[in-house]
Amino acid sequence: MIHPVGAKPLDRSDAELSNRQWPDGWPLSACQRAEVAGADDALCFRKIICACHAHFNETSGDMKKHALITTSLVLALGLVTGCSSESDGDKARPGSAAQGGGKAGTEAPKGPVYAGPALPGLAKQQAWSLPPAKAIDLGDVLLLVKSGQGDYARGGYDNAPLDGTVGTLFSAYSSDKPESVTLEFRDVHTGAVRKSLDVEAGTVAATTWHNGVPAVAVTTTRTQESDGLSAGKSSITVTVYGADGARLGTIEHAGDGKGVSVHEGHLIEQDGDATLRLTPIDGGAPRKVTCTGTLARCSFDRRNNEIDGAQAHAPLITGTYAFHVENASTYASDPEQLVMSELATGKKVWSTADVAPPQGVKLDKDHKRTSGAVRVLDVRDGRILTAWGAGAFSPDTFVTATYDLASGKQVGGSTTYRYADFPGDTINTEGSSVFSPDHKLAAAHTKGGTALWDLGTGKELWKQAEGETLLTPRRFSANGVLYGDTDKAGGSGTSALAVDARTKKVLAKDLPSDGIPLFSRSTGYGYLTTDDGFFVFPAERQDG
User: Is 285 exposed, middle or buried (0-12, 13-18, 19+ CB in 10 A)?
Assistant: First the structure.
């Protein structure tokens, strides 16, 4: 590398950079030092010379001479190509080889100012904002989709997740004619675009890669018209991207894609009434998951990514495991059982048939459960969280308990709740709960309102008292705020409420029904969309 006259070679030492002097005592500014420390040698030198070039008109006398000499030297070497009034952080940079090409920048967006009510658990001032949009949470990155017209996609399609997050964020006007869109991978803290990809997309949807890693799936459909003799053919191509914008895998699949889902790095499709076919997107042999029983039926529900039997429900894939249902039929005399097996081999690992149901579950004279309803709510850290139907004549009542994966022994106590049905939902959501991000707490939607319990011990922490306005739990913040819905007086709709999860103390009431923020799983940042914009907030500091 060539260095300015009288200057030492540049290194990455902050201390040395802070003392770096140009000829005749001209120090590098803090801004210049930051740019120098983060650049490679050639780019580093170009940045400094750009700074000199910009500074030239602000100098005078001998100082101007030195600036002129330095700039002239570099001009002679042809090293100031690319200098402009913009910083490199304001301009797009070439992306990686990911499909569609890419570009990135570091400039934070300048969007609208939030004017709504304070949101408990979040800072009073937004970190950044955009015009109205919705986003896919990829951890410390939020993925947004911008159309060719410059508008941001706002989702709102069928099969939206039950937890309020985004499922399909973008869908082309015509299913067989992809549209040009831009995928923006924005830093959740600052809103800066880490990566930008221009792609052709029929749909852009939230998904997961192997072991539950958040990802985004871009799907396109290709149709080959009939030539008059042979039948027309359709196929779909699915490309999955990670939070850094890198392509994780691509797969092409025959058919129009209807009924096909993307989950945990697999294409999920129905293969007969009782079988699901799981095809790895990154290569490998497909795996079939088959439910058993007379006239057995089971399916995959993309709203909660569960395998759905007649009365049994569980995550279809959880890490390196998959579930299926035994006796998945109303004709079976034995209760349904959930079986977990190794995803790669199909080898059985654990079954609800191998353990004793928790206390509170009624058994018949043959010691079989009188209710066939059973759910697996979560598999984490070698433990399985389950919910069991309490009895044949108590269809709304479930007993929740945790079991050790290796031994099948119950861990901690259990809780029994009579759950509230949501008649507009066609799947059985009874026995499920809203979990805190750290999975230490759960809030149950019971007939008497919200009840909150400790997942580790099974101990109930509190429940709503008789006469209180019923609260339907929706989601937790990372720092212990529980948001939910309440009915307005006179049945004129709903409003949102926020309470301290540990104490039930009301922190905010009469929030807009659409004013419950979503929370980034890994950072605790909250975000929400209103008619005025898309707003992102840091978590509220707990030290006052």
Answer: exposed
Give 400's contacts (C-beta < 8 A, 6+ positions apart).
358, 377, 385, 386, 387, 388, 414, 415, 416, 417, 431, 433, 442, 444, 453, 458
Q: How many CB atoms lie within 10 A of CB 208?
A: 18
Rounded CA separation 238/208 (Å): 13
Q: Residues 179-199: what's their mean pLDDT?
A: 97
pLDDT of residue 491: 73
Through-space distance between the first and last CA atoms of the chain, rounded to whole angstroms: 50
Bridge-based pairing state of the strands 534-537 and 526-529: antiparallel
Q: How many CB atoms lie within 10 A of CB 271?
A: 13
Q: Which residues contact 489 (CB under 8 A, 6 or more apart)?
A: none
Nearest to 240 by CA among 220, 255, 254: 220
Q: Which two tokens stand for residue 140?
A: 């410390």
Q: Which residues contact 454 (CB under 8 A, 6 or more apart)?
A: 440, 441, 460, 461
pLDDT per position as a tens digit, 208-253: 999 999 999 999 998 777 677 777 788 999 999 999 999 999 999 9
Assigned token pair, 70: 């330095």
Enumerate residues 6+ apart whose C-beta is below 8 A from 288.
Answer: 271, 275, 276, 277, 278
3-state helix, strand, coil in the chain (%, to 5): 10, 40, 50
List strand residue ranges (DSSP E) for 312-459, in order: 312-315, 317-318, 321-326, 337-342, 348-351, 374-380, 383-389, 397-404, 410-418, 433-435, 441-446, 449-454
10/39 Cα distance (integer angstroms): 11
Distance CA 283, CA 379 (A): 26
Beta-bridge partner residues of 146 = 152, 182
Amino acid making up residue 533: G
CB–CB of 391/361 below 8 Å? Answer: yes
Residue 537 burial class via C-beta count within 10 angstroms: exposed 0-12, middle 13-18, buried 19 and up: buried
Q: Residue 141 belongs to what H/E stretch?
A: strand 141-147
Q: Identify each DSSP E strand in 11-140 by its residue range.
A: 21-22, 26-27, 93-94, 103-104, 128-130, 136-137
Q: Rounded to an integer, what distance in angstroms lies between the CA atom of residue 352 and that of residue 356?
A: 8
Calculate the CA dihedral of residues 484, 485, 488, 492 and round it to 10 degrees.
160
Write the DSSP symbol of residue 336: P
Q: Is 87 exposed, middle or buried (0-12, 13-18, 19+ CB in 10 A)?
A: middle
Lowest mean pLDDT among 229-233, 376-380, 386-390: 229-233
Residues with Cβ within 8 Å of 333's Cβ and at least 6 positions away in sequence, in order, are none
- For residue 93, give both structure tokens: 């940079």
As a whole number of angstroms, the distance between CA 467 and CA 394 comes to 24
Q: What is the pTM of this model?
A: 0.79
